[in-house]
Amino acid sequence: MFFLNITLSGLPGTGTTTVGNLVSEKLNMEFISTGELFRKFAKKRNMTLAEFGKLCEENPAIDKLIDSKQKELSKTNDNAIFEGRLSGHMCNAQLKIWLFAPQTVRALRVAKREDMNVDVVLKKMIFREKSEAKRYMSYYNIDINDTSLYDLVIDSSKATAEEIAVQIIDKIKQL
Predict the structure, then answer these.
(1) Domain carrying residue 142
(2) Which CATH number fits the domain that encloses residue 11?
């Protein structure tokens, strides 16, 4: 049994949730998804993710609440995977991972998952990512494209979720 916190971050469609769930199951670790929390907040307000993102731009308290909750949970957990765009910046963790993939690959994945037209998904994805990048820079002076703080950066278009989970577990064994 491992006693460490891991962060798993990446843009939409990179596979952070899928990979995080796999690693969580294999290592019997708690999985805490800030993206899921964000989606629940949007749904509760009957808003799309893009609409909710715009609301967050106008009301920073929402993002900051989610971010502070994540930070707090990472201080009180010692065997969890924190999945979210800013988890690597916000959480107390011994291993920080960033997944990436080309935008077209990510759009195709999201379109398949959401059963939507890929062009619509791509347009929404671009809008959402710009909104998030703007908020992260404004709130915390974080450039989401700077991956220098991560211990492991993986191109998820070059491997399956299972293969990435194995890479992560191998890295954990080296700690």
Answers:
(1) 6-169
(2) 3.40.50.300
User: What is the Cα 122 distance to its own chain's centre?
Assistant: 18
Question: Per residue in 67-93, pLDDT tens?
Answer: 888 899 899 988 999 999 999 999 999
What's the pTM?
0.89
Helix or strand or coil: residue 98? strand
User: 175 lies in a domain?
Assistant: no
Domain count, the chain: 1
Q: Is residue 174 part of a domain?
A: no
Asked if residue 1 is part of any domain, the answer here is: no
Determine, yes or no, domain membership for 68: yes
- Non-local (6+) Cβ contacts of 90 within 8 A are 67, 70, 71, 74, 82, 84
pLDDT digits (tens, 9 = 90+) for 104-120: 999 999 999 999 999 99
Report the C-alpha gap between 71 and 7 in whole angstroms.
11
**Structural tokens at position 15:** 């596979």
User: Distance of alpha carbon 157 from its chain centroid, rounded?
Assistant: 16
102: pLDDT strictly greater than 90: yes
Average pLDDT, the chain: 93
Rounded CA-CA distance 98/22 in Å is 16
Residue 154, helix vs strand vs coil: strand
